Structures are given as C-alpha cells and as structure tokens.
Amino acid sequence: MGMEIRQEVESKFLDFLWCLTMDNMLSLPSDSDIRKVLKKDGKELPGFAQVMAKMLTICNDPNASIGDVAKLVETDPGITAKVLGIVNSSFFSLRSRVSAISEAVLFLGIDEIKKICLGVTFFEKMVKSGPKKQFDRAFFWRHCLCVASLSQAIADQIGYPSPEDAYTAGLLHDFGRIILDRSGRVNYADFCKNAFNFTTPLVEVERDIIGIGHDDLGAYYGHRWGFPEKLCLAIQYHHRRFGHLDICKEDMQFICIVCLADYLAWTQGMGPVDLILSPMLQPEVEKNIQLDRIAFEAVIQKMDEEIENTAKFYNFEFPSTDQYRATLLKANLKLSAINSGCFSPKEKEVHEQKLSVTASITAPHCSLEPQKILSATLKAICQDFGFDRVYILRAIPPLRRLQVVKCLKHDSFSDQLAAHYISMDKADNGFHKCLRNKEPVVINGTLPGEKEVLERFAISQMLVVPFCSHDKVIGLLGMDHAESGKKIEPGLFSSIAIVANELGLALENASAYKKAKSASLHDGMTGLLNRMAIDDLLKKSFLKAGNENMALCVAMIDVDHFKKFNDMFGHQEGDTVLKLIAKTLKKMSRPTDHVGRYGGEEFIVVLNDTSPAKAVVYAERIRKEIEHLGHLLSDRFQGLGLTVSIGISKFENDIKNHDVLVSKADKALYKAKDAGRNRVVSG
Predict the structure, then answer these.
(1) Residues 6+ apart with CB under 8 A from 429
(2) Mean pLDDT for the stretch of residues 26-45
(3) Residues of the domain holding 627
(4) Which of 127, 339, 360, 550 has the fewest CB atoms within 10 Å around its CB?
(5) Domain check: are 468 and 536 in the same one?
(6) Residue 493 belongs to a domain with what CATH number?
(7) Where is the domain boundary, 324, 358, 393?
(8) 605: alpha, beta or left, given left = phi > 0 and alpha = psi -120 to 50?
(9) How confident is the model at residue 44 (pLDDT cuts 50, 70, 90)?
(10) For residue 503, what are the CA distances in angstroms to 110, 358, 382?
(11) Which pLDDT belongs to residue 384?
C-alpha cells in the first residue's frame, strides 16, 4: 500500500514538473493580461463547449471506440445531421446512404469520422455560434479547413506518425481569432478591415493595438481547457521562432507542419482574413522538414478535393479557377513587393558580409569595426602561417551554400573569388563536418563534392576553420597554398583554431559596442531617437539649411489628455499608447526625417528638405492616422479618445540656432492645445 502511495505521489510530482516545463515553453499570458484585452462581462468570455472538449479528448485517444464517437456525436442532433450530410456526400461515394454514426464509422474508419466530427463540432460550437461582427467567419473557416487538410497531407508526405493530430492542429491553430472576435475589447472586425494599412505581420499588430496576439490567446485557452501539450505549442508558435524549445524532434516537426501548412494556405490566397498579406516561414521549418521531398502538387490537390467537398456544408463557395488564379497572382505580387525590399546596393551587401566575419590573435584587435578586424585577421594569417591565400566563407542558409565574402591575396585574382560559392546540398563532406563539429578540417577531394570545389579554386587542398559567436558558427576561415602548392601541415590546426576563436570574440565585442552605441542614442521604451540624438541631428540639419539654402521644418507632437490614460488605465497602458504613437510616426515618416521622443508624451520630427506647406500636410496625415487609431481602440480605452496636437516651425535665416526652432514649434504646439486639442498649428 505504501509503495502505491509513493508511486502516486511521484507520478503527481512528475506531472507537476512537466506542467511547469510546459508553462515555461508556452510563455502563457497572465490572467490579468487576458482581462485587459477581453470584455469584463462574464457572459461574453468564451466557454469551450463540453461536447467540443470531449470530442478533442476522444480524437487524441488511440483507444477510443466506435461507440465512444457515436455516443458523443448523437448528443447533439445538429452535429449529427451535419456529420451524416458530409458522410453521404458524393466525395465518399458510399454504396448506400447511412443513417447512423456507428454505420458511417464502419464505412470510413474511425480516424476519418473523428476528423469530420471534430471539424463539425468546432464549427457549430465556436465559429458559427456567438455574435457576428462582420468578421468574415466563412472566410476564416475556409482557412482553418485548408490548413487542416494541408497539415495532414504534409504529415503523410514526410512520414509523421500521427497525421490525424496534424489535422487537428491545423484546424485549431487560429481559434484565438474567434475569441478576439467574440469577446475582444477592440472590435476585431474593424481591426481586420484596417489590416491593409499594416506593414508588419498581422499578429504583431494585434499585440500592439489589441494588446495580445491570437496565437498567445489561443495557447492560453488551449492550456486552460486541457489541449494536448504539443497542440498548445503549435498554436502559440505557428507565427514565431521556436528553435529554442527543449522538445523532442517529433514535436518540433509537428509545429513545423502547421507552420508550413499555414504558409501554403496564405500563398494560395486562403488566409484567415479577406486580404492578401505577407506570409513568413520560420527557418526552423527548413531545418526539420526536407521540403524537396514533398510532392506539393499532390498536397495542394488533396486540399482542393477536401475543401470542394465540404464547402456546401459550411455555406461558403470555393473560388472558381479564375478567382483562384487572380488571388494567387495578388499573393505573388505581394510577396514580390516584400522580397524586392531585400535587394540592396552592393555597399549594403558588403557591409552585411562584414558583420558575419572576424579577426586574429596574431594581430591585436584595437578596432571595434568588423571590417578592420577582418582585414587584420586575414593579413596576420598570411604573414604568420605562410598561406598564399586566406578568405572568409559565409553561410547563406536560404540558399544552402557557403559564399566567399572576402579574400586576401597578393594579386587581383582575390577579387574574382567573391563570385565563388560552395553548395551544401551535396552529400556529407568536409564542409559539413567543419560546421557540425566546429573543428578545423582539410578538404582534399576525397569526399563527395570536394573535388569540384578544389578545381574551381585551382588548388589541391583547402583548410577550413570555423569561427563562432555565442557558441554559434557564423563563418569559416578558408586558406590554401594556391601559388606554392605546398601541403597543409596538420600541426597548424590548434594555432589557427585559437586565431579563429579570438576572431569570434573580437566580433562579439564589436557587435556589443555597436549595440551599446545604438542604445545610447535611442529611447528605451519606444525605440525612437532620444533627445540627445535628436538635438545632435537637428543641429546638423540646421547648419545645412543655412549653408545650402535647404528647407527645414520641425514638428512637435503631444498626446492629448495623456495623464488621464495613466490615471484611468495604469502606467502600463500609458506606455502602450506611447509605443503606438511612436510606431505610427516611424511608419509615416520618410527615411530622411529624424523621429524622436523628446520627453514624457512629447515627440519631435525633424523634416529635412520640407517646405512649411508640406510639413502641414505631413502633420495632418499624422493627426488623422492617430485619430483613426483612437477610434479603433475606443473599446479598449473606453471614455477616452486617443488624439494628438501638433505644432510646426520653419527654418528662417534670422533664427539664431536650432534651439529657437524647437522653441517655436513648442509654442505652436501649445497654441494647438489651447485651440481645442487635436489640432495642427504652424508657428
């Protein structure tokens, strides 16, 4: 008896530890966080129907019987009718009509019936029920079914052991949106209608404007209602990075399946809202799923078949071929516009390459500039170890290759090496070993793919040595005897490894310095330039305006009734208001403008090369955008509108210094407030 009690205590203790671990991995919002974003009226708060909770339990029970499923479905006549309607559809081509769930199970199998029952139950109890606020739930439900179907098809393709679980995760991954629509303080329908104005992912804008993302909200209620742990993880991480999670490979792959399915649905024009927004795919997906082994044509075809079959039962139309092609074109145009932002001048590309490389122990790292650290390292290796040529190989994960980004050699051939790259799609070789084991390796042509590389580099041997930052490989030092043809001496390995280690440390220091310098110029809360940085930039703009006859204006912006935000809703919500204002200013300003927080609830924008008339137009756009944002947040900040007043000053030759320019803008600002707030006044 004592042994049984001890085992029970140990079991409960292990369960307790596991729950703590899951809570840490999930990073769930607190109850107070939830109360801030959902309405206080308890009747509005989402209650997970008992039949839905029980259905999910049965669907995750491998020992569930036909009787268990049939008994549960039959408790709700509406659900029974829907399930039998789908089962008797032409899609399943049954020989005769069935009139009982138990009979349907015999024809289709328990897994298929579980899937149908779960979908119908979720639709009837969560999607269809509750007040409708113009949030297009039919469009949303089509997205859920698409992601569910795609998840199961992808799971089948990659050999995931539980494709039915993947279907469930795809079906429920976005259910936090329904909770926001039913119970959110911010009207979710209005939020979605304004989504076309957003330049960042929708879930990030949810966090800014609503106060929480649908992913966190879904994970919170999923955990509360007893969803399986891996399902909660898939719900919370389908829009964010998750490589840091301490979970098994199978569960990591489970999250990846849902992320990939959600991404595919977006690209096919099947997003959760009726807008073409920018999908993003986490790097973890490519690391855990071999995308080139998936027959995407078959996956998409499976989705088409399932959606076409079930559309009439959920009262939505599957798009025609022409509609589908047009939507797909829009999605690709949107993606193209986003990707075009990644193209950059060669100078920027070189600058980014500099940040990925390092320096050497043989040359003191006096500089905190990555480029100088890098050049000193390559020069020192050539001089101290006698190599003819030394270069940096940078890993480019999306292209699965190593690229030569810098080379030191005594003739012009070093410039040509920048065009060389090493594909990492080949079978396991010395480059893989170097990256994986973080140790020096001699590439001598004995392993697959190595000989081709050596021929392109016109050498017989190459030594590659990894260098790291925060214990992560960020590049390889490559070196060879291209002119002398000498053999590489193994005795050099340990010494060069020390050089590479020092290089990594030097780059870490340079990165830390850069971050510290940047932090000293930016406001910690909003991320905008701080007063010191703005004063310095304004001083330079002021001098340039005087010397080059350039137009210059300054806009001072103040949040109306800001003290009331703190008094009525607390300092945390007051900080949220400031962050939202800051993001709006940053979004609507040009790259040549300087945007900063001047103190408290005051912001300043230095408008370079801007006439007074254009400055007023800019200020009016800002004022109206924030007023519109205030309308969107009216339920969140009840009884208090979010507006700003703006004062503008212009550069004139008789103004003595930049401080006078700020003072004139500040006076104009308070004239605007005296005139009734939410105004623009030019001083």
Answers:
(1) 443, 447, 448, 449, 450
(2) 75
(3) 531-682
(4) 339
(5) no
(6) 3.30.450.40
(7) 324
(8) beta
(9) very low
(10) 60, 4, 15
(11) 81
Look up residue 59 and give its two tokens: 């669907």
Phi, psi of 212 (to 5 degrees): -160, 155
In a domain, 625, yes or no: yes
Last residue of a domain, one of 324, 340, 361: 324
Of residues 242, 273, 186, the one with CA closest to residue 25: 242
Q: Is 181 within 8 Å of 135 (Cβ atoms)?
A: yes
Backbone angles phi, psi at 117, to 5 degrees: -65, -40
The answer to whether residue 21 is domain-embedded is no
My answer on whether 320 and 181 are in the same domain is yes
pLDDT of residue 117: 78
Indicate the number of domains in the chain. Answer: 3
Q: Is residue 19 in a domain?
A: no
What is the predicted pLDDT for the residue at 513? 67
The residue type found at 445 is G
Paired tokens of 37: 């974003």
For residues 439 and 73, the model is more confident at: 439
Residue tagged 């040359």 (tokens): 363
Whether 552 and 498 share a structural domain: no
Q: Which residue has the tokens 């490989």?
A: 473
566 and 628 part of one domain: yes
Residues 535, 629: one domain?
yes
Exposure string of 476-505, with b = 16+ CB inside 10 Å and e = fewer, is bbbbbbbeeeeebeeebbeebbebbbbbbb
Block residue for tokens 């966190």: 216
Examine the domain organization and report whether 371 and 406 are in the same domain. yes
Of the chain, the percentage scoring pLDDT greater than 70 comes to 79
Asked whether residue 337 carries a pLDDT value surpassing 90, the answer given is no
Residue 346 above 50 pLDDT? Answer: no
Quick check: 42 pLDDT over 70?
Answer: no
The predicted model gives 548-552 an average pLDDT of 93
Q: What percent of the chain has pLDDT above 90? A: 27
User: By CB neighbour count within 10 A (0-12 exposed, 13-18 middle, 19+ buried), where does 229 fall?
Assistant: middle
- Tokens for 87? 């089962």
Does one domain contain both 422 and 368? yes
The interaxial angle of helices 346-355 and 370-385, nearest 10 deg, is: 60
Name the DSSP class of 487: P
Run of H or E residues at 273:
none
Question: Residue 581: pLDDT band by 50, 70, 90 thresholds?
Answer: very high
CATH of the domain at 614: 3.30.70.270
Same domain, 361 and 447: yes
Q: Tokens 């990707």 appear where?
A: 339
